[in-house]
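Dock beta-D-fucopyranose; give full complex structure.
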Amino acid sequence: MSTGNEDYRDAGLQFPDGFVFGSATASYQIEGGVHEDGRGPSIWDTFSHTPGRVVNGDTGDVADDHYHRVEEDLDLMKSLGLHAYRFSIAWPRIQATGRGPANQAGLDFYSNLVDGLIARGITPVATLYHWDLPQALEDEGGWTNRATAEAFGEYARIVGEALGDRVAVWTTLNEPWCSAYLGYASGAHAPGRTEPLASLQAAHHLNLAHGLAIQSLRSVVTNDPQYSVTLNLHALRGDGPTGPEAVRRIDALANRVFTGPMLHGAYPADLLEDTAANTDWSFVQDGDTDIIHQPIDILGVNYYSTTLVRVWDGTGERESADGHKAVGVSPWPGADDIEFLPQPGPYTAMGWNIEPSGLEELLLAVHAEFPDQALMITENGVAFDDVVSTDGGVAAVHDPDRIDYLRRHITAAHRALEAGVDLRGYFVWSLMDNFEWGYGYTKRFGIVRVDYDTLERLPKDSAAWYASLAATGRIPD
Ligand code: FCB
C-alpha cells in the first residue's frame, strides 16, 4: 500500500538496486548530418522540407549536430551519471535506400557510439526504428507495402551482425501507433498521407516488421541481450455513460492493435469488427500473427498524459482533443463517432494535461493483462517554455516545473513498482532539446538545453536533479 503525497510529490522514495535511470533520444531528432557518409533521405527529410508540414519550416538537417558532437554528448551523459542511453539507429544511414548492402560508415557511427557508451559505463539500448523510413521504400508504398516489413527484417539482421555483440537491449519499433496513424491517416507525421485504410495496413506491416526483426536479431547476435518494443499505450479514461464503449473502441485501435498480435498472438475480434467498413484485413496473411507473436523480455511504455473519450451524440462540433497535432484530419480510422474531450490542467507547452496518476493506472493495467511481462518506461518527460537566466554572469535554466513533472511521474512509477509491477527502468525524454517532429524546434523536452545558434549544451536544473536520482536511486528532496 502506498501512502504518499496525494499529488504524487514524494521525496525520499528509494528505488531498488538495478533499477535503471536513463535518457532517450531519436536519430532524426538529434543527429543532423543528413548528407554525411552515405546517408540516404528518409521520409522525415522529405516531409520537413515540404512547406507547411513543420512549424517554422524547421528540418532535422542540423538538429543538435549530434552526428559531429557524439563524443561531447557521451561525456555529457557520463557527467550526469546516466545508467543507460536509449538511442535510435537511422535506417537510411545503414541502407541509403532501405535495401542492399550495408553502408559501413553508417554502421561505424553507431558502433563507435556503442563503444563510447560502454567505455563510460552506460548501457546501450538501441531502437531500430524511430520513424525515419528510407524515402525509397516510401516511394514503393512505405508501410502499406508488405515488402517494407521484409526489408526491415533484413536491416535488423545487418545491424544485429554489426552491434549484436554489445547492445544490451534491442527495441524494434518506437511507437508504431504514430508511424501508422499519424503517418498514414491524419498525415500529421511523415509521410503525410491521409488514407484510413493505409493506416491499418501500415499498423499490420509494422507489427510484422517487429516480429521479423526479433527473429533476425535472435539469429545473429552473439551476446545475451533483451528484446523489446516500445508502445505509446494510450491511458484512456471514459466520460459519462458512453465512456466505457468509447474506451473499448479506442483501446482496440490504439493499444490492442499492437499488444494483441505481439503478446497474445491474434488481432482482437472487436477491432476487426469496428473497422470492417474500412477493411476486411485481408492483408493479414496466414502465419503472420505467429511471426508477430515473438517472446519479448521487456515491453517499453511511453507515457505523457491521459486521453478522455466518449461516444459523440452527433450534435454540435465533435471534440478532437486527442493530444496529437491538429491537422484537420482524424488519425482514428473507423472512429468518427468518438469524441476526445479536453481535460483539466495544468498543461505542458504541448498542451498536454499533466496527470501522473495516469501513468500508475497504465502500468497497473498492463501488468494486470500481462502479469509476467517486465515493463520499462522508455519515455516520459515534458516540454516547457524554458528561460535562460544569467544570474551572476552564469547561464542557467531554472526549470522547477520540469523537476516537479519528473518527481510526480517517477513517484507514480515507484507506486506501480510497490504494487507489484515488474518495472525495470525509467528513461527521461529527452537527454537534450531536439527536433520535436511537426513542432520543429519550438518545444523543448531536454534536461539539457541546446542553443540552436551555437549548438552549445547547457544542463538545466532538472539535469542536476535527475543526476542525483540516478546516483542514489532515491527521489531527491
Ligand atoms: C514521443 C516520441 C518522441 C518525442 C516525444 C515527445 O511520441 O517517441 O520522439 O517526440 O513523443
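Observed: Residues 196-220 form the longest helix (25 residues).
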